[in-house]
Amino acid sequence: MGQVLAVLRNLLGNGTPTMQISTVDSEILNRRRLSSTGQTTLKSYSWSNRLNTINPDDYKHIGLESRTIVHQPGSIKGHQFIIERCRNCNIFLFDWTDSITILDCTGCAIFVGPCKGSTFVRNCDDCTILVLCQQFRTRDCRRISVHLCCSTKPIIENTVAAKFACLQVSYGELEGQMAQAGLSPFNNNWTNVHDFTPNNGEGGTSHNFSLITDELATAKVGLNDPEVIGETDLLASFDPSISLVPFTTGNGPASDPGEDCLVIVFATEKAKSSQLARSFVSAVRAGQPAMILLSTMEITMLPHDLRRILHMSSGINSPSGSSQVALHYHGVLAGKVLGTLSSKEEYRSAVYVSPTVHQAHTEIEACWNLAEMKMN
């Protein structure tokens, strides 16, 4: 008998056996304790309230056909979302999410508001997907069009005939939702697509995807049964002139007499760098429409970074710890044109412009290398 007890002790970890109590049993025991003490209310816990109010079915669409569904701001609040086996649907998620999975869909138009984590698209055909996210990945997809604002390099795998464009969108709650999801509209790597299964042509370029550099591409997106829903119903605009995400092209024209120029926008005591950067981009767009914005980036450069990259002793009186927005422009006499704009009163104390073309090339490379290092 002693040997049997020893074996049992070893199996139980030499501890006292414990009994698992279900939620229902636990509530019964609590009520008994309350009745014995004379209390009349149960103690409430945050996790029990959450379990009672969250219905997973509210955050998924499965097996729908020819439907138009709009989730208004505040209806998702950072939950995971699943869209699966839908056909010829319009699905709009105008709220921020934790992650998105889109599976086995055909002929759908899907808008995904700011996604804190990853957006994964698998086995989808002939779909148009508009999304703002931290990570974007596809697998086993055919003929999809992706309008994207993505903080990291988008990845495709076993995907053919994909098209990528710079997402252009704005609506009232978008900026706040992006902040909740930890995204910046200036961190957009939509052109830096990585193909895990490339079908390379000349120069090593993958034939599995192409880039659309038309700023009106998002505005031209077609909906299924467009008369069912319009922009007024969506409370959103895809007009590039007011888009929260700036339009970027990734690369300048192959043969162009223009020059590169780096602009860095700093925060002030009165405004964030992102606010001033949007104002600066709008001013360039209105006054110098031929100037091309190749890429943008929001980053926090410390004083030693500024000294090393820009040879600056300070951040133009920028508040400590604030981020900066870097703008990579290309155009004829870009340095002179942008330098003149930066001298205006509203930008004079907040905007740096590379003084020479040579210095611009060096600073652009250093800035983007720093950003990549911070991400890794």
UniProtKB/TrEMBL annotation:
Database matches in PROSITE patterns: C_CAP_COFACTOR_C
Keywords of this entry: Cell membrane, GTP-binding, GTPase activation, Lipoprotein, Membrane, Myristate, Nucleotide-binding, Palmitate
Every C-CAP/cofactor C-like domain range: 45-198
Keyword Nucleotide-binding attached: yes
GO cellular component labels: cilium; periciliary membrane compartment
Subcellular location: Cell membrane
InterPro entries assigned to the protein according to its UniProt record, in alphabetical order: C-CAP_CF_C-like, CAP/MinC_C, CARP_motif, NDK-like_dom_sf, Tubulin-bd_cofactor_C_dom, XRP2
Entry's Gene Ontology BP terms: post-Golgi vesicle-mediated transport
One Pfam family named in its UniProt record: TBCC
GO molecular function: GTP binding; GTPase activator activity
Membrane topology listed for this record: Lipid-anchor
Residues reported in the UniProt entry to bind GTP: G117, S118, Q134, Q135, F136, R137
Family stated for the protein in its record: Belongs to the TBCC family.
Protein name: Protein XRP2
UniProt organism field: Ramazzottius varieornatus (Water bear)
